[in-house]
Design brief:
Layout (H helix, E strand, L loop, with lengths): L1 H6 L4 H22 L2 H19 L5 H23 L1 E3 L2 E6 L6 E3 H19 L7 H19 L3 H18 L3 H24 L7 H14 L11 H15 L26 H34 L3 H25 L18 H18 L4
Antiparallel strand pairs: 1-2, 2-3
Helix pairs in contact: 2-3, 2-11, 3-13, 4-5, 4-6, 5-6, 5-12, 5-13, 6-7, 7-12, 8-9, 10-11, 11-12, 12-13
Length: 371
């Protein structure tokens, strides 16, 4: 056991939660796609990333934070100009010498959190000053604005995480309320324009946002409307209804009928798929896993003696908890379709690898002698 603790440092409960989510991911994704070998290999790669990053002392990121931040901005700009397009969105760049792509907004998410942690550490004695708030706001709006052009939900989640991070560390509430109100008005204005301007004259992503809002607010959607967000939401409802016929255990793993009809069942709608096969036991297990991740992050942050580590843990905890709840909210049709994955559970490439790196940093922070 001592040998195990020697090589797997950090918060033990956090490790247990990650292993549990990994097991859930293997079972759920395999059941939905029947591709066990690929999923197991990808989970092992993700855990290897967690382990490798958790061996790197987090303080090394302090001086690298500006470099990482501006490199992520450059990647976002390159993606907008030369990126690969899918579903009318340009979010990926091709990895050299391969046919694979990488979603650069995932790097920007953790880069912003690390950079804000660096900034607030530098200005620890000036957190109440307006100049610090303005700097943090500008540094937040740049990546969020670049991501917003092709991925509204990711930009919104990242912006909200940054706002909550500022609130927790002591940025004056009056500044944050003003910023939040301004952004809400801006988004409302943009969305309003999409309903006023004829659809043929709208940018493609504006049309997508408009359609998703209309589909979400439609009282009597067409159940048979194929290949639309209405179809996705209705198939998710069917999956949940079938899973709750036996409230406790669902239809049991491997017995899903919605694997043939529910789009993106292994990624965007994996929570609905879990409810179908595992009932409320599975649904509650996943829900409480993310709540417990946030709980562990707050405990780790409280024990930090260094502000940089504390701010990183809080930022990552907030970011991935929000993302998880957005994914689950979409799956149970409480929110419009967003395309957000369930962290460390959904099938995905860049999202899971970057999330693994973020969790590795959290584990390293929890393992340091001064924590």
């Amino acid at each position: 056991m001592k040998l195990l603790y020697k090589y797997f440092k950090g918060d033990r409960i956090f490790w247990i939660i990650l292993l549990m989510l990994s097991a859930i991911s293997i079972l759920a994704v395999y059941s939905s796609t029947k591709d066990l070998q690929y999923r197991v290999m990808f989970i092992l790669v993700s855990l290897a990333v967690v382990w490798s990053v958790h061996r790197i002392r987090y303080t090394r990121f302090y001086h690298l934070a500006p470099v990482i931040y501006f490199a992520s901005i450059a990647l976002l700009v390159i993606t907008l100009i030369y990126g690969a397009t899918a579903n009318e969105a340009t979010r990926w760049i091709k990895i050299p010498l391969t046919d694979k792509t990488f979603q650069t907004s995932e790097i920007a998410k953790i880069s912003l959190i690390i950079f804000l942690a660096h900034l607030f550490s530098e200005y620890q004695d000036k957190l109440k000053e307006k100049a610090t708030f303005i700097k943090a706001t500008l540094y937040t709006l740049i990546p969020c604005g670049l991501i917003f052009l092709d991925n509204l939900s990711t930009a919104a989640i990242l912006f909200l995480a940054a706002i909550l991070m500022m609130f927790i560390i002591g940025i004056p509430v009056k500044y944050l309320l003003g910023l939040a109100g301004s952004m809400i008005l801006l988004v409302a204005f943009v969305v309003g324009l999409s309903f006023i301007i004829p659809q043929e004259h709208l940018p493609k992503r504006f049309s997508t946002w408009k359609n998703r809002i209309e589909n979400f607010t439609e009282k009597n959607p067409d159940v048979n409307e194929d290949l639309t967000t209405n179809f996705q939401r209705n198939q998710a409802k069917i999956a949940i209804a079938q899973g709750t016929e036996n409230v406790i255990i669902g239809k049991m793993p491997g017995n899903s009928s919605q694997r043939y009809f529910l789009p993106h069942r292994e990624s965007d709608f994996i929570y609905a798929f879990i409810i179908e096969e595992w009932g409320w036991i599975g649904a509650s297990l996943v829900l409480f896993a993310y709540l417990w991740i946030f709980r562990r992050c707050t405990l780790i942050a409280r024990k930090c003696n260094k502000n940089f580590g504390m701010y990183i843990v809080l930022g990552f905890g907030i970011l991935y908890t929000i993302q998880a709840f957005v994914n689950m909210g979409v799956s149970v049709t409480l929110l419009p379709v967003t395309g957000q994955t369930l962290p460390f559970v959904s099938a995905g490439g860049s999202s899971q690898i970057v999330t693994a790196a973020a969790f590795g940093i959290i584990l390293n922070i929890s393992s340091q002698e001064d924590v």
